[in-house]
Amino acid sequence: SNLQLRHVEGVVTVAAPPHAKGVTLGEPLSSDDALDPHHLRLVVPSHQFSQNALIPSPDKYLEMYKRSIEDPAGFWSDIASQFFWKQPWNAYSVFSENLDVRNGPVHIQWFKGGSTNISYNCLDRIVESGYGDKIALFWEANDPGVGATSLTYNQLLSRVCQLANYLKHIGVKKGDAVVVYLPMLMELPITMLACARIGAVHSVVFAGFSAESLAQRIVDCKPKVVITCNAVKRGSKTIHLKDIVDGALLQSAQNGDVVPKYPTHCEVEWVDAEDPLFLLYTSGSTGKPKGVLHTTGGYMVYTATTFKYAFDYKPTDIYWCTADCGWITGHSYVTYGPLLNGASVIIYEGAPNYPDSGRCWDIVDKYKYVTRYSRESLRILGSVGEPINPSAWRWFYNVVGDSRCPISDTWWQTETGGFMITPLPGAWPQKPGSATFPFFGVQPVIVDEKGVELEGECSGYLCVKNSWPGAFRTLYGDHERYETTYFKPFPGYYFTGDGCSRDKDGYHWLTGRVDDVINVSGHRIGTAEVESALVSHPKCAEAAVVGVEHEVKGQAIYAFVTLVEGVPYSEELRKSLVLTVREQIGAFAAPDRIHWAPGLPKTRSGKIMRRILRKIASRQLNELGDTSTLADPSIVDQLIALADS
Ligand code: PRX
User: Which N-terminal residues, if any, form the signal peptide (predicted)?
Assistant: First the structure.
């Protein structure tokens, strides 16, 4: 099963590379495997694994992929018809798109004219097909052995209806925004599904965000209500969320346990396939977070399908995604994707290392009822959010998966709605650290800085040609920024903001962001957001933030700050600068390092040379490049001298 996938006229073809050598699932990777990317071992699915997989071979993938590219309307219509639609979509124009700004406004529509409801498809449809007593959600509390509970599909439907009725009662209508500021309680997916049921647009704000970040999002999307809870336990700490919300709202939200009084039946609001489902704010390269807008029909079809194939879903599986619903992964792969497949999903309230670092494996074993930490039940492992380096891959494969489980290293973004480049575990050999090949319907291209598509083995900017059903449709209230950020850099394509290389076998390797966005432990943070938090400190005059490599977190935040004239730098001031970022954005965005700077390296036109700052931050002092064009080249030496002080 060694193969080569090559892009030929936008379609992938297969050939066997003579050099390929592999280990088969079941065999461990030795420590010298996987370290040199040019001599990587392939990890080949075993015959038994492939035989039972939904996509059992490269040929099957290619057959489906080819159809998805050559006949997207037919391919996606066949899948979409497995869901419930109150009205069918327009069969003559299943989708319409313009991704080329030169041809007018960018627009993407899928299944236009169809009306449906994603909450109905996640719940009522599953109940009606006889699975009402199947567990939909298992909830595992922060403290082991305390309060674990579960809901069947029937029970989940009732809970969703009660909340939906309550929301209607307090005046929430179709199209209204609802901000959800909740931790990983079952109430979080319940709220999302209740909003979707009545056609309201949810905007979940990760519960680690501060009052100011929450306020910023409330101001932008103007919700009718904000839904929160009093407090959450995370590790040994109790976090008082309601106090944070009160800090963000002028008036305090309504108190009290009112929802259970409401009826457990609630009629569905049928919505157009292109009606908005949710807004999710994400970081970009300017200070203001972007409200990524996803609509209903295409997102539903895409998340369900990617979930099914990337995890080779079997109805007997118990599925756990450790992501928080405050991020896109929790939307697409805790809530919608799995429930649309009728899966049983684990939701975990707490931190992965509480009470100790065995907690994840404890949960894994608990829900398969086997002896402590055997992890025997694991079938497939998933990963998302940042490149996995080969040695982490090897640990995940050898230790966590006992060399038995394929790893779906899924590359995608808040904007893409669902997986874009991902292994299909039974189909082809994996290379540790590579997200492998495109999902059905996705045409990734790698372009050079002029926007010219590169062929074969290459490296450049990752773009996508043509739309896919799960694509975001706009940035809320700012279609112009949507076009400028994503479609103008390389006209004709969707620009991802990521660098990527493709190897001789056609595998894709993501190399990280090429814009001013940094990725700290999978949290996407705009350098400009951290900078504006820092400069809001009364003693900070100017700030420049860069990402530096970090062994555990992927990247860490490194901030250069200049102070208001006459203010001395001190340990106390450092702490107060870090605190400002924690308060304005959240603890996850706190800089690891504050580097006091008497001045910043700027061009004569006043532009900060971040390239140089990145080199200083990572102590690559031989690679500073030409500094002679700076307005004041001596700044660089001063910064180097202060680097370790
Ligand atoms: O840089 C890529 C990285 O995460 C970015 C998207 O972040 P966000 O919108 O927060 O979504 C995270 C969950 C989808 C991408 O632009 N990224 C995501 N997945 C991978 C990745 N980098 C490498 N490998 C991945 N599998």
Answer: none
pLDDT of the residue at 608: 87
- How far is C-alpha 635 from the chain's CA centre? 38
Q: How does pLDDT run across 589-630, given as a tens digit for each residue?
A: 999 999 999 999 988 777 788 889 999 999 999 988 888 878
- Euclidean distance between CA atoms 142 and 350, whole angstroms: 4
Token pair for 621: 């002092």
**Any atom of ligand 1 within 6 Å of the Cβ of 306:** no
Taking the CA of residue 329 as reference, the ligand 1 atom at the shortest distance is 13
Establish whether 503 is a catalytic residue.
no
CB 411 near ligand 1, within 6 Å: yes
* Cβ pair 442, 464 in contact under 8 A: yes
- CA proximity to 519, closest of 560, 484, 548: 548
pLDDT of residue 567: 95
Give the distance (Å) from ligand 1 centre to CA of residue 412: 5
ipTM computed for the complex: 0.98
Helix (H, G, I), strand (E, B) or coil at 291: strand
pLDDT at res. 417: 98
Contacts of 538 (CB under 8 A, 6+ apart): 564
Phi-psi region of 498 (alpha: psi -120 to 50; beta: other; left: phi over 0): beta
Burial of 101 (0-12, 13-18, 19+ CB in 10 A): middle
Cα–Cα distance between 249 and 216 in angstroms, integer? 11
The whole-angstrom separation of Cα 479 and Cα 56 is 41
Which pLDDT value is given to residue 33?
A: 54
| Segments of the chain with pLDDT less than 70 | 1-21, 31-40, 250-256, 370-373
pLDDT of residue 16: 41
- Probe target for ligand 1 pocket from 329, 381, 384, with the most ligand atoms within 8 Å of CB: 384
Q: How far is CA 117 from CA 93, 154, 275, in A?
A: 20, 17, 10
Whole-angstrom distance between the N-terminal and C-terminal Cα of the chain? Answer: 55
- For ligand 1, atom 26, the nearest C-alpha belongs to 411
Backbone phi and psi for residue 477, each to the nearest 5 degrees, phi listed first: 75, 5
